[in-house]
Every structure is written in C-alpha cells, then in structure tokens.
Design a protein that fits this description.
homodimer; 84 residues; alpha+beta; Alpha-Beta Plaits; four-stranded antiparallel β-sheet; 5 strands; EC 3.1.-.- (chains A, B)
Chain lengths: 84, 84
C-alpha cells in the first residue's frame, strides 16, 4: 500500500502522526506498508474525522507486493526495507 | 506508474514541468500514468540531469493496472480518469 497526502499545512503534523501509527514514512508526504482490511477501515475513519474540506489523501491498494516495484532517482528518504 | 517527488523548492517547477511531459499530475507532488520502457528510460535520464544531491524521486512501476486501486479520502485533485 502507498498513501500520499496533500493537506492544509496546519494539519500536516496530525496527518503524519496518524499515518505513522499504521504505515512507514518513506518520503515527504508518502507512506508505504501493508495493513489488514480492518486496519485500513479504521485508518480511513480516522482520516475522515481529521481532514477538512480541501485536504486530499490518496490510498493506493496493491493486490500483491510483487506487482509494484519502487525505483529511486536521487536520494532515498525513509526506510529502504523491501517495498511491502 | 506512480511518481512522487520531494525536491528542493527552487527545483519544484522544473521537476513538475518535466513530469508533466510524461505523466498526469494527480496531487501535490504525485503523478500517475502509463509510459513505455524507453520513455521511462528517457524520463529517468532527464531527472538525473535535473536533480541535485538531496532531491528525491520515487518511481513505482506497476506490472499491470488492475493490481493497484486508488481510493480518495477527502478532495480529488488531478485527473479522475481510470488509474492507468
């Protein structure tokens, strides 16, 4: 799973703290990781309560890890462990 | 394909302009789209020439479109056409 967010600056810290409880931070506004369906439901609920009108979060659900490969151009930021 | 970037603010415009020539802007520092292997090679070359030391671009290559699904929490930003 890949999650990217674009939220109002006053909410960035809270969104980042929330996402950190579920996933791994890997780049500025990007998280990766693998979570269960029930935890994804819980994450979405918490996000909906936190986000305001113009905030945007995209959740890319990956059917199986091997279907997605990550390449880095330039610096590696977060964890470099295997994608999922 | 999903591309996310985290680059020095003075280079954001140029990186965004470059990525727009290959992919679709969908959120703050996120692009999506489907490109050929040769265009991906060309894109990576242009990125390497443009990026400086601490700049970071992640390229997520998706083996086949159906393997990834995008869900939005909050606002939809860029194109809403089918993921790939």
């Amino acid at each position: 799973m890949i999650v990217v967010y674009d939220v109002e600056v006053s909410r960035v810290d809270r969104v980042r703290k929330l996402l950190r409880r579920y996933l791994n931070w890997v780049q500025n506004s990007v998280f990766e990781g693998e979570i269960t369906v029930s935890r994804l439901t819980a994450l979405k609920k918490e996000l909906q309560e936190l986000l305001k009108e113009n905030d945007s979060v995209y959740i890319y659900t990956v059917k199986f890890p091997k279907a997605v490969k990550r390449e880095t151009v330039g610096a590696e930021r977060g964890g470099t462990e295997e994608f999922l």
